[in-house]
Amino acid sequence: MLKRFFPFLNWISTYGRSSLYSDIIAGVTLGVMLVPQGMAYAMIAGMPPIYGLYAAVVPQIVYALTGTSRQLAVGPVAMDSLLVAAGVGALQLANTQDYIAAVLLLALLIGGVQLVLGFFRMGFFINFLSKPVISGFTSAAAILIGLGQLKHIFGVQISQSSKIHLLLGNIFDNLGQINSYTLILGIVAIILILIMNRVSKKIPTPLVIVIMGILAVLFLSLETKGIQVVGEVPKGLPNFQMPVLQWELIGQLLPIAITVALFGFMESISIAKTIEEKHTEYELDANQELRALGFSNLIGSFFQSFPVSGSFSRTAVNDQAGAKTGMALIFSALLIAGVLLFLTPLFHDLPAAALGAIIIVSVFGLIDLKYPAMLFKSRKDEFMLLVATFLLTLFIGLIEGILLGVLLSLLLLVYRISNPHIAVLGRIKGTDYFKNVNRFPEEVEVETDKLIIRFDAQLYFGNKDYFKKQLYQQIEKKGSGLKYIILNAEAINYIDSSATTLLERIILDLREKGIQLLITGAIGPTRDILYHSGLIDIIGEENLFVQTFEAVDYCSDHKERTGVQRRVSLQSKTKSL
Questions:
Q1: Cα separation of the two ends of the chain
Q2: Measured between alpha carbons, how far is 394 from 163 in angstroms, rounded to an integer?
Q3: Of 15, 64, 275, 554, which one has the greatest count of Cβ atoms within 10 A?
Q4: How far apart are CA 115 and CA 111, in angstroms?
Q5: What 3-state class would DSSP assign to 46?
Q6: Partners of 229 in the beta sheet?
């Protein structure tokens, strides 16, 4: 039980020197990458840069002890930061201190939500975030993040907004105030990042840009030319302090907390599953991952951390650098702690334009064009879902966009199962195979007195009328010579009470018209429903068959079934009771 909630106990007992060396290398690499990224993502969240370093200390240690992935890099990420900025920014708080207090309270709530969901084993909720929704939201959020950072590239104050039309309007209103020195510095930084990324992925590009930016400010006296710098960065580790509990604010933050909690978990678990495929020495536990993220956010909030989750880029670097266990995260946290204790004065002259350039290049890499193109060719309905989520996120808002995207994906699911595929079957000549007459028009034999139909879904209140309509359309096509309807029920895994009542009416109506209904291929759970609902008394046990050809042959010669055929076709838990 203890190992279930503290997975580090599974590997710590066999931890050796080789793993220690690999974890130190990976941890140092990760920490070096986290310093500029953490500060940049804090800016996205609307927080002072130092809070990005705070968020890279305690949460990493907590996840290392409680997470089941041994390579997942937990900490500040761009998407969660933007959701935080959109949600808390909409509250229009009076001053910076109130804003910071609200974000720390939000981290506490997010951790609480994730913990509750984890302990109640609710990890399956993440299945409601389909890939088209995620892709549309991510691309739209990346555009909003990138545009939001133009204020640092232009060197002007631009009012932020999570709606693109308002954000673009604010940007155009301030074009006349652009600082040319800041613009040049920002463009040069972006170009250098792109060049270094193309040369080698192993180059710690963000750190190089930070160092170059600081040196440029110092040696060229850029601060005197209007270039904004980070300024004084507080020295020392984050203090332990309880987030301020304001019940009215909690009510306003809770919807945001639920959204960020679910999205952060989705982001983390998808990254962790990708990395897990390369490692056979451990298995992910989705519910424990949810609890681990919850503990990381909840405990982190007491040490001035804003919301965190798994980072794709840092996880990839952590894995490539050779991380063997969660110790890599602990070494990364120790490096960040060292920076906070001894090196914060060095960041005084860090230009905001350099951090803005790092963010812009990073987030525009999240825009995926290949997946929408693939959907456009093969899945038009999912393509439209992606586009709708993308546009809703851009023009209505981040949180509204993803929630409406989930709602649309559920509506699409309901539409599909309410209008499932129905096939009319015919016998392939010379065989006992029965296939869709539209797919094998030249090979199938269709008998005028028999209608063989396959319904490819569960039969329930949402599609029972569709089933009846399609069935009677086919009956009308067959004409007066129809004597038998054979329902292939292989794909019907459930029949609810509404559909059961409908089937009873259909059978009785067909019987009045001199048409007999037979059912083939009904699986065990479906047979159980036929029995305990009493529908079997209407259908008749003699009209249940295992294979379609058996039912067809029975209609032709009324030959008695063998004992095995009868036993298999009628087996039911309900009957045996």
A1: 38
A2: 6
A3: 64
A4: 6
A5: coil
A6: 351
Q: Confidence class of residue 263 from pLDDT cuts 50, 70 and 90? A: confident
pTM of the model: 0.78
The pLDDT tens digits for 309-367 are: 998 778 887 887 788 999 999 999 999 999 999 988 988 898 989 888 887 887 787 78
Closest CA to 290 of 60, 119, 70: 119
Q: Is 30 in contact with 315 (CB distance < 8 Å)?
A: no
The pair of three-digit structure tokens given for residue 351, joined into one six-digit string = 């230009």
Helix (H/G/I), strand (E/B), else coil: 517: strand
| Interatomic CA distance for residues 161 and 6, integer angstroms | 41
- For residue 175, what is the DSSP state? G
- Are 466 and 437 in contact, with CB atoms under 8 Å apart? no
Question: Coil, strand or helix: which one is 488?
Answer: strand
The residue behind tokens 């946290």 is 333
Q: What SS3 class is residue 450?
A: strand
What are the residues whose beta carbons fall under 8 Å from the beta carbon of 373, sequence distance 6 or more? none
Picking from 152-156, 164-168, 268-272, 519-523, which range would have the lowest pLDDT averaged per residue? Answer: 268-272
CA distance 311 to 87: 21
Tell me if 129 sits within 8 A of 401, measured CB to CB. Answer: no
Helices and strands, number each (H, E), in the chain: 27, 9
Q: What pLDDT, in 10s, does the model give residues 106-147?
A: 999 999 999 999 988 877 766 677 889 888 888 888 888 889
Cα dihedral 538→542→544→547 (10° resolution): -160
| C-beta separation of 484 from 451 below 8 A | yes
Cα–Cα nearest to 223, from 350, 359, 73: 350
Rounded CA gap, 114 and 197, in Å? 35
CB 133 within 8 A of CB 389: yes
Q: Please report the beta strands in 387-523, taking only residues with DSSP state E, as ranges in sequence order.
A: 422-428, 434-436, 444-445, 450-455, 484-488, 516-520
Tell me the mean pLDDT in the region 223-239: 88
How would you classify residue 560: left for phi > 0, otherwise alpha for psi between -120 and 50, otherwise beta?
beta
What are the strands, taking DSSP E only, across 103-186?
Answer: none
Question: Whose CA is closest to 262, among 139, 79, 390?
Answer: 79
Euclidean distance between CA atoms 31 and 127, whole angstroms: 32
Give, in degrees to the nearest 5, the angle at Cα 285 between 282 and 291. Answer: 130
In angstroms, rounded to a whole number, what is the distance separating the alpha carbons of residues 494 and 491? 9
Residue 325 CA, chain-centre distance (Å), reads 25
Give yes or no for residue 305 having a pLDDT over 90.
yes
What distance in Å separates the CA atoms of residue 285 and residue 75, rounded to the nearest whole number? 20
**Could you tell me the two tokens for 12?**
């710590």
CA distance 213 to 105: 33
- 545 phi/psi in degrees, rounded to 5: -135, 160
325 touches 15 (CB < 8 A) = yes
